[in-house]
Amino acid sequence: MQTIQVGDFKAELSSILKQVQEAGEKFVIEYGKKHKKVAMLVPYEEEKTPRKFGQLEGQYQIPDDFNEESDEINAMFYGEKA
Predict the structure, then answer these.
(1) Could you read off the pLDDT of 57-82 as tens digits, one per residue?
(2) Could you tell me where the beta strands, DSSP code E, fall in 1-82?
(3) How many C-beta atoms surround the C-beta of residue 16 within 10 A?
(4) Cα–Cα distances in Å, from 14 out to 3, 18, 42, 73, 76?
(5) What local confidence, expressed as pLDDT, does residue 81 receive?
(6) Would you tell me how many other CB atoms lie within 10 Å of the CB of residue 29?
(7) Hey, where are the domains in the chain?
(8) Which of 60, 51, 55, 9 minimizes the C-alpha distance to 30?
């Protein structure tokens, strides 16, 4: 995060915007002789729409034996039992 005076910010606006866009840099803008921090320039992020829970309901079937163990699959993972 960089700090910049408002006069420098106005003079270098295009290059600052390029840094924000390409590198994700953040800038704190200061104003006056006392360097009072008045604003922050940060990269813009698109708002993400929340995912709708249950949007695929009724479009697929879960088999009744979904949670059942398979001897064949267990043998592949754990090896043959002695």
Answers:
(1) 889 888 888 888 888 888 888 887 64
(2) 2-5, 27-31, 36-41
(3) 19
(4) 16, 6, 14, 61, 60
(5) 61
(6) 19
(7) 2-41
(8) 9
Per-residue pLDDT, averaged over 28-35, amounts to 93
Structure tokens at 50: 């929340």
Mark residue 33 as left, alpha or beta (left: phi above 0; alpha: psi -120 to 50; beta: remaining).
alpha
Phi, psi of 27 (to 5 degrees): -130, 135
Task: Assess if CATH 2.60.40 describes domain 2-41.
Answer: no
Distance CA 29, CA 7 (A): 10
Long-range pairs for 33-42: beta carbons < 8 A, 24 or more residues apart: 35/3, 35/5, 37/3, 38/6, 41/16
Q: What is the pLDDT of residue 35?
A: 92
